[in-house]
Amino acid sequence: MAVLIDPPAWPGHGRLWSHLVSDVSYAELHAFAARIGAPRRGFDRDHYDVPSELYAKAVRAGAEEVGSKELLRRLKAAGLRRPKRAAGAD
């Protein structure tokens, strides 16, 4: 049972980003994100996009550092993965 973070390797808007997830619940994820100062607008379906500037703070607050593949594996195993819908899938 953990909050997980992958390395800041995802480019966007002139910076690098990490993904922050919980393998327990969205409530745990939202509470943790608020504690480290990640804005709610950073939440995207099942994870927070966290700028590299918050990475160390997240780790100090208890986020477990994992690779991107491990993060996704554990998110799926917890049943919390919400993939994007394909265009026109409605």
What does this structure look like?
- The chain is of the alpha+beta class.
- Helices cover 30% and strands 26% of the residues.
- It contains 3 helices and 6 strands.
- It has helices at residues 26-36, 55-60, 68-77, and strands at residues 3-5, 10-12, 15-22, 43-44, 47-51, 64-65.
- Strands 1, 2, 3, 4, 5 and 6 form a 6-stranded mixed beta sheet that branches.
- A hairpin with a 2-residue loop joins strand 2 and strand 3.
- It starts with a strand and ends in a 13-residue tail after the last helix.
- The model has no long low-confidence stretch (mean pLDDT 93).
Beta content: 25-35%
| H/E series | EEEHEEHEH
Low-confidence region ranges: none
Content-based structural category: alpha+beta
What is the makeup of the main sheet? 6 strands, mixed
The first-to-last residue Cα distance is 34 Å
